[in-house]
């Protein structure tokens, strides 16, 4: 019996304590497999949803006005790529120009308010009060003011995107830690030096965060204003196609909005990461 | 400290703290942080202010640095004859307070930029060389282009010390500069600070809650009690100016530390959560300061 016990012990030892290197290799191998497996699962999942959609529509005899099949939507995309792409460009253009203006205005106003106290006492309550107004409710008015062209769309985008960018920037300009203020004051530095050399760089990551938050709202603002009055843009395509009961085209246009928004959001995230790496404020706090 | 040696001898700057009181309004009540605090810091001396947390030592240091107005009393900077002089400070805070978007070298040079408001263009080469030499003196040669988050807290704090020294101030104000460090770097940075002080003959004021740290580094120790912050005693440490960690075993060290401990009514005992670096001397009791 002792020999049998010994054998059992040996077997167990081999099983439970593999060499460390092998363990690491197994671990990375598993990781690599995990990534591949996850992607595969996702692809299969999407394919399954599309297949189920396709056959559910077909077998239930749902008309394409109510819900077209994925192949019908795909057909729209390949037969009218020019229509979809040019209108995606119009909506993207309105959103991106609006975002750019929001960025300039939001950052500029936050910088001014952070430097001059009197400005923050008067302007800040105004800005916050204006934020309480639902921008979608004002959009028809904006069309009256800025016309049927791209300007009214850009104006709506600015009215929505200004606030997150402004607020993020303004908040981080205010929240510089006391020690940093003491550092500059202890050197008899000026208010301007504190502002320029500490507070402004301190706020840069938050500007990028504000921009990232604003991106989906920009596309939203553009589309909504196109719904109200427009001759082009994906909002216009979606509205006119659905009014003409061209549901496949509507869905194709929605697909394009989604892809464009996702793309811009991904770019904004990449930009934010880049900025945070250059200005690692959080890392500097501890 | 070769670079610091090349500096021309400076007129020493002493500090006279005269009857400083400071109170804060807190939720409708008035909180007295400091009450009638007076003491002198002779030029070239190293004064340690030791006391439990809440005794207003950081408040006192901020008042000396001109970062905070006292409710009453005044602070004067004087030379050896008692004539008023204008003082330049180098401050080291509890945390390194480095600018995370600047390299180590650019962080050390930051005070030069602030002082030289009108300067345009590049930093003079000799200033840059001086910053590099300061970094080398604290063992950070080769880290000039690193960024703060790439360094340990101990290394960051040494960068902060170099930054405090770059403008060659007469007065060093040290606000618990070792509080964020582990025991090993505490001793190391502490001795580096001692060497800098010894060789540059600067006036130094150190705020700490560690009695051994205060006695090890200070030529004079000011003991403070809490709520309101008052001076309990001002003790001269009868040890040579030049010291190393061996003074921890010196009878004079034990005498001063013991005296302060009794003044601050520190109860020794196994239950105390004394900081590891507080009591490096063998056989000495652990202290329980600053944990109230």
List the helices and strands and how they pair.
The complex is a heterodimer of chains A (286) and B (292).
Chain A: H1 2-16, H2 20-59, H3 70-79, H4 81-115, H5 117-131, H6 135-146, H7 150-174, H8 178-186, H9 191-228, H10 234-243, H11 247-278, H12 281-285
Helix pairs in contact in A: 3-11, 4-5, 4-7, 4-9, 4-10, 4-11, 6-7, 6-9, 7-9, 9-10, 9-11, 10-11
Chain B: H1 2-6, E1 14-26, E2 29-41, E3 46-50, H2 57-64, E4 72-78, E5 89-92, H3 104-108, H4 110-115, H5 125-137, H6 153-165, E6 171-175, H7 183-200, E7 203-208, H8 211-217, E8 220-225, E9 230-236, H9 251-263
Parallel strand pairs in B: 3-7, 3-8, 5-6, 6-7
Antiparallel strand pairs in B: 1-2, 1-4, 8-9
Helix pairs in contact in B: 6-7, 8-9
Description:
The complex is a heterodimer of chains A (286) and B (292). Chain A is mostly helical. Chain A has 2 domains: 2-59; 70-285, MetI-like (MetI-like fold, Orthogonal Bundle), CATH 1.10.3720. Chain A contains 12 helices and no strands. In chain A, helix 4 packs parallel to helix 7 (150-174) and helix 9 (191-228) runs parallel beside helix 10. The radius of gyration of chain A is 28 Å and the shape is flat. Chain A starts with a helix and ends with a helix. Chain B has 292 residues and is α/β, with parallel strands linked by helices. Chain B folds into 2 domains: 13-88 and 171-292, 3-Layer(aba) Sandwich (Rossmann fold), CATH 3.40.50; 100-167, no CATH class. Helices cover 30% and strands 23% of the residues of chain B. Chain B contains 9 helices and 9 strands. In chain B, the strands form 2 sheets. Chain B has a 6-stranded mixed beta sheet with strand order 5-6-7-3-8-9, sandwiched between helices. Chain B has a 3-stranded antiparallel beta sheet with strand order 2-1-4. Chain B is globular. The termini of chain B are far apart. The model of chain B is unreliable at 1-9 and 269-292 (pLDDT under 50). Chain A binds chain B through residues 177, 179-180, 182-190, 193, 197-198, 201, 204, 278-281, 283-284, 286, and chain B through 62, 65-67, 89, 91, 93-95, 97-101, 110-111, 113-115, 117, 147-149, 167, 173.
């Amino acid at each position: 019996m002792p020999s049998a016990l010994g054998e059992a012990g040996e077997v167990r030892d081999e099983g439970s304590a593999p060499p460390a290197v092998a363990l690491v290799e197994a671990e990375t191998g598993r990781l690599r497999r995990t990534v591949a497996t996850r992607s595969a699962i996702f692809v299969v999942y999407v394919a399954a949803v599309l297949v189920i959609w396709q056959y559910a529509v077909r077998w239930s005899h749902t008309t394409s006005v109510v819900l077209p099949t994925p192949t019908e939507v795909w057909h729209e995309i390949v037969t009218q790529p020019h229509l979809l792409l040019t209108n995606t460009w119009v909506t993207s253009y309105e959103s991106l120009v609006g975002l750019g203006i929001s960025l300039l205005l939001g950052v500029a106003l936050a910088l001014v308010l952070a430097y001059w106290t009197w400005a923050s006492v008067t302007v800040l309550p105004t800005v916050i009060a204006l934020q309480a107004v639902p921008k979608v409710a004002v959009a028809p008015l904006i069309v009256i003011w800025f016309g049927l062209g791209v300007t009214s769309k850009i104006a709506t985008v600015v009215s929505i995107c200004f606030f997150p960018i402004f607020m993020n920037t303004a908040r981080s300009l205010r929240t510089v830690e006391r020690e940093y203020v003491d550092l500059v004051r202890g050197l008899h530095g000026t208010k301007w030096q504190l502002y320029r050399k500490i507070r402004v760089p301190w706020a840069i990551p938050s500007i990028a965060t504000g921009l990232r938050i604003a991106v989906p709202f920009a596309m939203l603002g553009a589309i909504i204003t196109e719904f109200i009055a427009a001759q082009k843009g994906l909002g216009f395509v979606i509205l006119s196609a659905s009014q003409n009961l061209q549901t496949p085209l509507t869905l194709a246009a929605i697909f394009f909005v989604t892809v464009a928004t996702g793309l811009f959001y991904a770019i904004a995230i990449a930009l934010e990461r880049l900025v945070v790496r250059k200005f690692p404020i959080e890392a500097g706090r501890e | 400290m070769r670079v610091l040696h090349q500096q021309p001898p400076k007129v020493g700057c002493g500090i006279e703290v005269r009857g400083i009181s400071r109170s804060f309004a807190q939720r409708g009540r008035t909180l007295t942080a400091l009450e009638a605090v007076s003491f002198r810091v002779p030029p070239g001396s190293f004064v340690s202010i030791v006391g439990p947390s809440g005794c207003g030592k950081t408040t006192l240091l901020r008042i000396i640095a001109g970062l905070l107005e006292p409710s009453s009393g005044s602070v004067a900077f004087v030379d050896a004859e008692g004539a008023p002089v204008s003082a330049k400070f180098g401050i080291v805070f509890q945390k390194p307070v480095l600018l995370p978007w600047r390299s180590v070298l650019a962080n050390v040079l930051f005070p030069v930029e602030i002082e030289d408001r009108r300067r345009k263009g590049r930093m003079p080469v000799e200033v840059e060389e001086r910053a590099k030499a300061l970094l080398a003196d604290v063992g950070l040669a080769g880290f000039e282009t690193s960024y703060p988050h790439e360094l340990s807290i101990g290394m960051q704090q040494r960068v902060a010390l170099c930054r405090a020294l770059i403008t060659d101030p007469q007065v060093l104000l040290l606000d618990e500069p070792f509080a964020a460090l582990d025991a090993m770097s505490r001793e190391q940075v502490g001795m580096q600070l001692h060497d800098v002080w010894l060789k540059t003959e600067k006036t130094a004021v150190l705020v700490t809650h560690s009695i051994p740290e205060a006695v090890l580094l200070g030529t004079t120790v000011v003991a403070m009690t809490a709520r309101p912050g008052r001076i309990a005693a001002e003790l001269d440490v009868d040890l040579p100016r030049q010291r190393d960690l061996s003074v921890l075993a010196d009878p004079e060290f034990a005498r001063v530390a013991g005296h302060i401990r009794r003044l601050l009514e520190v109860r020794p005992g196994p239950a105390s959560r004394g900081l590891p670096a507080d009591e490096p001397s063998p056989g000495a009791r652990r202290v329980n300061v600053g944990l109230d």
